[in-house]
């Protein structure tokens, strides 16, 4: 039987990275086996569903490059089907209506007690013991089905062959298996993936977005975008959070993952989200990114802070190129290019004290001004020769000469190589920044 798997999100909020990982594993399994990846929207929670969330989910999957082959199917459009099947269970004596103060009037499934055993694709044999386990609700009086019921019905109706989902659903599986049995249907195979843990070893929380943001850990796709992660990096990182291709392989394109992915290599212990690893990986993808694309990726971050209206395309491109080796996240482009895009220098007081106010700083800057002023362009060799000559004459290290100039031009003691820093600013700004720095000293 050919593989049919599905991603079945409930449209009740952002697309969580745990959800992306679930979608990814199902996608990889479908592609690897030549099967079909179905998108199913589990929108039966009338109070919590939103159109906006649905849009976020679809756009998030598209951003990650995880296209589906079939669907989206909407549970809200299949209410008649659930009612019809609920009636069958009632007729078979497996379901009954009951009114209670908490749940109102609802159709309940008669659960069989005792040992519940099944084989999980990830965990192997799993067993639960039901003693006094309460019957669960199938349909509410509103006619809407519960997750437990609609999810199982759809997996049957949509011919789903494997259900790969998070460990948080493990305890639902015996109940859903009883539904399949009651209908006389063959169930899919279930595989439950380990939960994602945060760096502290606690279950990744949906509520700690702010705290996670401060350490660069994105919990949702929109956080991935805000913090400047590339989709390739996110997908690659999430692939390894619970699955391993072996051979210490780490950097992989989606196509490579498709080739290597097997359900057998999904791990059964929780995977820890290591921010440093994600940032390293993101840096790797930034290095590989063609410059034109990187410029477009950086543009929204820059446009949010600087007036790019008057900036020439070549300057923008060069400013990004100068930082390509250094970036670990796209948002870092903003502080790193401040010296290019802000009209005035913002001095870092510590750097000023260390390099300009310290002895010799001002004299060095004056001497460099004299050496730079006759030049129209700043090429590597002449600039380096000038710095070397001044350093030799004064008997100091090269850094002692370059740093005062760097601070005068950029406000900071970190910037691209000196000749690149000079070149991107251009003659006029170089001289005027040196002059206003000298005035300040
Ligand atoms: N709607 C469920 C969820 O978002 C789907 C669970 C499943 O994959 O079976 O958790």
Any descriptors?
19 helices; 12 strands; 441 residues; 3-stranded antiparallel β-sheet; elongated; binds glutamic acid; 3-stranded parallel β-sheet
Task: Give an overview in words.
This protein is of the alpha/beta class and 441 residues long. It is 48% helix and 14% strand. The protein contains 19 helices and 12 strands. It has a 3-stranded parallel beta sheet with strand order 1-2-3. α1 crosses α9 and α8 packs across α10. The longest helix has 23 residues. Bound molecules: glutamic acid (GLU). The site of glutamic acid (GLU) has 8 residues, from β9.
Which spans of ≥5 residues are poorly predicted at pLDDT below 50?
Answer: none
* Termini gap: 79 Å
Number of strands: 12
Bound heterogens, unique: glutamic acid
Helical content stands at: 40-55%
Structural class: alpha/beta
